[in-house]
Amino acid sequence: MSDIFISYARSTAPSAQRVAEALVAAGYQVWRDDELPAHRSYGEVIEERLKLAKAVVVIWSAEAAKSQWVQSEADRARSDGKLVQLTVDGTPLPMPFDRIQCAELIGWNGEADAPGWRKVAASVAALAGEARAPASQGDGGRPGRAGGRLSICVLPFANISDDAQQEYFSDGISEDIITDLSKVSALSVISRNTAFTFKNKSVEVKQIARQLGVTHVLEGSVRKAGARVRITAQLIDAAADDHVWAERYDRDLTDIFALQDEISEAIVKALRLRLLPEEKKAIEQRGTTNLEAYNLTLLARQRWTSGNAGDPRREETVLRLAGRAAEIDPSYARAWALIATGQYSLRFNRGRAGDDGLAAADKALELDASLAEPHAVKAMLLDVAGRGEDAFAEMETALRLEPESDMVNSMAGSLSYQHRRFEDAARFYAKAAALNENDFASAGMLLSASAALGDQEGAKAAARLTLARAEKVAAQDPDNGHALSTGVAAWATLGEGERAREWIDRALLVDPDNIQMRYNLACVLSLDLGDIEGAIALLGPVFEAIGPAMLAASRTDPDLDPIRGDTRFTAMIAAAEKRLTAG
Questions:
Q1: Which residue of 104, 109, 252, 464 is surrounded by the most CB atoms within 10 Å?
Q2: Cα separation of 20 and 22, whole Å?
Q3: Residues 297-315: pLDDT tens digits?
Q4: Average model confidence (pLDDT) for the chain?
């Protein structure tokens, strides 16, 4: 992968080109966003390249200082210790970047002996190593060999069990291997979200390697039958198109954790890498040694991510599955984290009585302080309690612990959206959608945040993504009212009012009691279709059952601004507040 990532605003593209040319001439591999492939999402590619770059050169300018994308990339680089800053116009840097050294390249035309450039070159060399010979004298374009560093993509293992419903298990195995290999410091690992874009697709390994710039690809299959599991895996050298290592394992299911460790360590050995003692220890930490608890937690997570939001049966199922896992193994932190998430949603979104999730979140963090999701739940609880600044601080902790968590990024988007911080909301929702290829809800909220920012092109792009995902889910689960209502917003944004009306009618027929769905439909009727009467009618049952978090969202949601002054709407809010206060 490229040594250097260049971040810049469009107005400074000529400067970015000069910086790139100077670095390439020095022998570095450089990437900037004029190389985005047409078939992949912007956020997904940016995230991938940021992760794998050894240094991130941020070109500050007046436009860049105002750009959420440049600031986001700079912040990620700062957190990772990869940031190199330069300014081309002397614009004051935004906080906290104004506290970090910045080279001045005002009026620079590529001179190698300019003091500002020498400062940039020295910082790049400190992070990425001394410059090598120019690329034309290198290793013949062998993918991913920059500086001798190996890189790998773990393709989703195919589920070849007789039961198609076991796919959650094969996906879990794939994700665990990705997580394990990511703990090996000498190896670059393609993220789960990128790897899973190849799921159920027939693509040649060499094509994948060229597309992602990796040296190796791992593929395999899982067959689960009764108390036995068979896993096949093969590691392929992408450039030579040779099998470096292949193995078939037939084991009892009770050996699954030792088997995952064995596969990860076999891959490291086949790549001739040295596994440090602390890395080996990290790989072998599974959170639980109980197969049933592990299996139930995988099922609970699948239900949460793919279930019908707005239908309380989703949360109820998650709580039964994760609750049973925690009974079996009370020390399984991930089970407690899912319990916290389900309890929070049932209490504050669905208006149900019961635990609010705080005790379960604290239990999860007591068992594993590195988990991000319990921190995200606590952030949402703080916000419901009116402690907004504390909520953002807690969410920042969650994002620092697991910046690649789709669930955490989605919750961060929700928190920002409720406080009308739409630029931040759009950034978090875009990342959540990129991290989970099935997440239509985050794509739908990206649509809404983009519209609130007045970014019509961004809203339409998000609408197209939302619609593709919502249609896929609705085809698999025709009763999923949440998917249908999210698709309605996409149709309306794309100017297809009649199609939006058709989907509204269908949604109300198949899932009339889903309050999340009715709320979403009311938002579309209010903002996009100008149907105030229809919006008010849909919201009646919503406010009769609404929970505190959803009620708070309704007070600030820009989609409801057209009806905010309607006395019927204000009466609904007042009645809901009275009901919740009395309860």
A1: 104
A2: 5
A3: 988 988 887 677 767 888 9
A4: 85
Instruction: Identify whether the C-beta of residue 88 lies closer than 8 Å to the C-beta of residue 115.
Output: no
148: its two tokens: 């001798």
pLDDT tens string 487-524:
999 999 999 999 999 999 999 999 898 888 899 999 99
Phi, psi of 519 (to 5 degrees): -65, -45
Give the whole-angstrom CA distance, residue 26 versus residue 416: 42
Q: Is the dihedral of CA 472, 302, 41, 239 positive or negative?
A: negative
Tokens of 281: 């220890």
Q: Amino acid identity of 568?
A: R
Nearest by Cα to 383 from 353, 352, 421, 354: 421
Measured between alpha carbons, how far is 241 from 225 in angstroms, rounded to an integer? 32
Residues belonging to the chain: 583
Cβ(240)–Cβ(223) below 8 Å:
no
Average pLDDT over residues 559-583: 91
Q: How far is CA 387 from the centre of its chain?
A: 26
pLDDT digits (tens, 9 = 90+) for 19-44: 888 887 777 788 776 554 444 555 66
pLDDT band, very low/low/confident/very high, at 389 (cuts 50, 70, 90):
very high
Q: Which segments of 28-114 does DSSP mark as H helices, in order?
A: 42-52, 62-66, 68-80
Cα–Cα dist 118/126, whole Å = 12
Q: Taking Cα atoms as reference points, which of 347, 280, 393 lies closest to residue 547? A: 347
What number is the average pLDDT over the span 381-403?
A: 91
